[in-house]
Amino acid sequence: xxxxxxxxxxxxxxxxxxxxxxxxxxxxxxxxxxxxxxxxxxxxxxxxxxxxxxxxxxxxxxxxxxxxxxxxxxxxxxxxxxxxxxxxxxxxxxxxxxxxxxxxxxxxxxxxxxxxxxxxxxxxxxxxxxxxxxxxxxxxxxxxxxxxxxxxxxxxxxxxxxxxxxxxxxxxxxxxxxxxxxxxxxxxxxxxxxxxxxxxxxxxxxxxxxxxxxxxxxxxxxxxxxxxxxxxxxxxxxxxxxxxxxxxxxxxxxxxxxxxxxxxxxxxxxxxxxxxxxxxxxxxxxxxxxxxxxxxxxxxxxxxxxxxxxxxxxxxxxxxxxxxxxxxxxxxxxxxxxxxxxxxxxxxxxxxxxxxxxxxxxxxxxxxxxxxxxxxxxxxxxxxxxxxxxxxxxxxxxxxxxxxxxxxxxxxxxxxxxxxxxxxxxxxxxxxxxxxxxxxxxxxxxxxxxxxxx
Length: 454
Ligand SMILES: Nc1ncnc2c1ncn2[C@@H]1O[C@H](COP(=O)(O)OP(=O)(O)OP(=O)(O)O)[C@@H](O)[C@H]1O
Ligand SMILES: [Mg+2]
Fold this sequence. Notes:
Layout: H1 6-23, E1 28-29, E2 35-36, E3 40-47, E4 50-57, H2 67-79, E5 91-97, E6 100-106, E7 111-112, H3 113-116, H4 125-141, E8 144-145, E9 154-156, E10 163-165, E11 172-173, H5 178-181, H6 201-204, H7 212-232, H8 238-243, H9 246-255, H10 269-278, H11 283-289, H12 303-313, H13 318-350, E12 359-364, E13 372-377, H14 386-390, E14 399-409, E15 412-422, H15 431-448
Antiparallel strand pairs: 1-3, 2-3, 3-4, 4-6, 5-6, 7-9, 8-11, 9-10, 12-13, 13-15, 14-15
Helix pairs in contact: 4-7, 7-10, 7-11, 13-15
Bound molecules: adenosine-5'-triphosphate and magnesium ion.
Adenosine-5'-triphosphate (ATP) binds at residues 34-40, 42, 53, 55, 89, 105-108, 112, 148, 152-153, 166-167, 169.
């Protein structure tokens, strides 16, 4: 939805000023808005040197058919006055005034996440994500869901250490009477409330009846989208949004699979992997694969152990199988291509006349989906005997085992194949980590080939 136009904002400023005069609490008012959204304008007001943010909603929400639902949401916001969630904006008061509604909140002179996306330091991402999860969990504990988690509704402190979620204008109850009162998520007419760019397909197209599971899937997707934006440093479906064609955007929400792998550096790879799963289109599969708590800083010292724990919890049933296979195959294709290129390039650099016919066979073990065997066959070459002994030291923790299978040819020791079994953790990690291990092997290869024999 587009932002309110300046004439509407001007009118809202008049109403806000009138409200403050009628209220008689001695607030002074600044006419220049500090923020404008699709449904409201936010102004700075102050009293005895303390600053507050005053949000005034567009009158169209509180008049006509939609007003019953809107009044219900206003009541829900009222319940949040005095909440104790540090990362959720605090509300001082919310009052109906003339044909509008006015909310007084704490003022946060911070940038929106949208504005500072490209500036978030890598080591602050997890800290900020933890705070976002605090908000989602808090709202859940009082049976509410925000529904409009997006970078415009998240404010970030200048040191990038704190985050606050604002704009609780479309909160709703997760379960309970609201389905009857609200009317926005049930029935034939389901007006779209949140933002298309950050809505999962089932929510954008309203293909599901509201349920706790649906809301959980929406939460997971929206957290995944925020993690995506922080890691990729660009908004989700940015190109489609800029095309100005809303059908293109809708199609992307429905079909286009965001990939974080290439942008994720090794320290972020755990969050990136979880976000990729969180952005899966199918809400049932999404709910099965990701828990909101997976986004939190792992309690265990080793992130890889925590990841293994997550993988351990995943139980796959036949319904999910084909979708999962698609994901896994894509990742496998990427890995084997990368490995082949690295090994081929290394061998070529060792000796230009060196003929190589490289084969990378992936064998999936039947017992678990997260175990893959990469088998690289190198043509028989001479290597130093000591090479075998040094191998242990270069084994990457994400590899369960690496075996170098040695053979004999014309009286010399040769490598016939290298077999690496990826540990379950590596499945969810950025594929680059796996190739890292193979790069290390190639380095060892280089150092140990007996050039005299070639
Ligand atoms: N408490 C606050 N302190 C400082 N700035 C705020 C505060 N609340 C909101 N803003 C700013 O005002 C903008 C609009 O506010 P808000 O998101 O609540 O309006 P909205 O019309 O409901 O938005 P939407 O377009 O998501 O419906 C925000 O994006 C943010 O930049
Ligand atoms: Mg907003």
